Every structure is written in C-alpha cells, then in structure tokens.
Amino acid sequence: MSGVASAEAVLEVQGVFAAYAAKATALSDVSLTIPAGGMVALLGSNGAGKTTLIKAISGLLPLHHGTLVSGSVRIAGTNITGLRADRIVRLGLGQVPEGRLVFKHLTVEENLQVGAAVVPRAVGRERIAAVYDLFPRLAERRRQQAGLMSGGEQQMLALGRALASAPRILLIDELSLGLAPIIVKAIYAQLRAVRAAFGTAMLVVEQNAKLALEICDTAYVLERGVIVMSGSAAEVAASDRIRESYLGSSGGAL
Q1: Contact 77, 34 (CB under 8 A)
Q2: Backbone angles phi, psi at 142, to 5 degrees
Q3: Residue 143, pLDDT above cutoff 90
Q4: Which pLDDT tens digit goes with each residue over 45-59?
Q5: FRET label pair with 121: which of 32, 153, 217, 234, CA 20 to 30 Å apart?
Q6: What share of the chain is helix, strand, coil (3-state, %, to 5)?
C-alpha cells in the first residue's frame, strides 16, 4: 500500500503536497493507491485533511483557495493533475459530496440526467435504469422534487447521480453524516451491490470508522495531513493505536 504506480490501479495519488492561501501545508507527501474494483477507507479526525485530499483528487481545490503544490493524481494511468473538475469527471471520477448537495429544485429524474450528461445518451439511459433498479425508492419518486425528499433519500439520489456518470471510481465523503443508522446500513449494503454490478472502485471517507472498516478491503489513516498507517481493513482495525483513537468502546464515530 505504498502508492507505487500499478497497471491495475484505477486511482493513484503520489507524493501530494497541498496548501491553502496564508495557511500551513494541509497535505504532506500523501500517497495512496486504489485497485480496480477496490473499496478503500480513508480515516482521520476532523481537520486531518480528508476533505482536502478529496478536493485535490477531484480538481476542486482551487475553488476553495487551495493549491496542489506538488505530486500527481492519476486515473487509470492518465495524469489528471491540474485538469478542470468537469474533465476529471469525464475521465471516470464520480463524487458523492459531504452534505449530499443534490439539486433541490430539480426532480429525481432531472438530477440523474445531470449526472448522465457526461456520457453518451444510450449509456446514460442504461445507467439511470440501473440506478432505479438499485434504488427502487428513487424510481417511485422520479418526478418528485429532490428538496422534498428525506435525508436518506437525498443521499441515495446523490449516490445515484454519481453512478449515472458511469464512473471508474467513486469518492464518497461522509455518507453517514446526519442519517439514522438503519438508513446508513441500507445505503452501504447498496454500495456492495454497486461494486458487484459495475466493478466500481471506491474511496470511502467516513466518520464511522467501524462501519468503514467493515465494508472496505483496505484503509489509510490520515493525521495532520500525513498518512500514518495503511494496510488491510482487518490489520488497521486490530491496531491498538486505531482502536484507542478512532474506534473506542462505542464503535467509532470519528
């Protein structure tokens, strides 16, 4: 898990340093690799740099007055460092942002069509149909305005919108935030179905460390902008340091 280039890697982050204007370095020599079809957890406390890394990968860092100072990011071998966010999406990156951020004035169907706009129409129709198969509730409410849906339904829609773009890899940022545990478990079950159906790789940033380590194959731990541990999910979960810092006796909300 060293971030070394691999022909089978769908996402490679190598030696990334990032900073915000007039602030100290936010990421320092961060490297990680996600294999095709892999599910990787990114753990860390608030302020560790998780969201900054997501922005650096997705090309959104400049919009938040940040800079990718050095290092590189590749999707399926293509260097995407410095590309605009829309071009990165077209190269196969999908994102489920923290806070869901669905288009509340649009219907469910229209939200999914926005996601599918970057792929050929026939592919988009197929992907939207597949999203409805995965999330029957969205199919039932396809003509409803997204802003009138519950938090759990909006999270399903945010995931479905990302899937509609036929991504090679999904960045999933704090999926469980603000949702009831039963809803979170149902959505995570669908993530397994997504991987089985499409082979989509995923980088999962999750406040609930226990849940993330249960669903993911491997994990990285980020502290103060530095990767301090990586390995299989089982190895990371068994670490005394991780158990004390992130899991604890209550099961691990970060």
Answers
A1: no
A2: -60, -25
A3: yes
A4: 888 899 999 999 999
A5: 153
A6: 40, 30, 30
